[in-house]
Design a protein that fits this description.
The model has no long low-confidence stretch (mean pLDDT 90). The protein has a single domain (2-108), classed as Aminopeptidase. The radius of gyration is 15 Å and the shape is globular. A five-stranded mixed beta sheet has the order 1-2-3-5-4. A hairpin with a 6-residue loop joins strand 1 and strand 2 (11-14). By secondary structure, the chain is of the alpha+beta class. The chain has helices at 27-41, 57-66, 100-108; strands at residues 2-4, 11-14, 47-53, 69-82, 88-99.
Length: 110
Amino acid sequence: FGMKEERDSDTYGIGWNFNARFEGKGYASESANAFIEYLFTQQEIRRLYAYVEDDNFRSQKLCDKLGFRQEGCFMEFVSFVKYEDGTPKYENTYQYALLKKEWLSQRANQ
């Protein structure tokens, strides 16, 4: 789920990957919420970020639901997949982020 940006950093990257059989049941939201709470309360981090491809609408919706804000879009970002001929497939990727103070404010307003 989470990865520190650098040793002793107060910034983590977060991501998820769920089996399609379980989509739409709230598991991603529930587990991500619990992990975010753990990171902000137990690990004392300051900032979370997530990278989401521009065609991954479910993850974009999850980021919105979790209170992340979209910070920008990296055009033809790092490629983790290849086309059949072996050339890299570059994808446009949104960066989302959530600060601890934003998360606390959202919780206070619920």
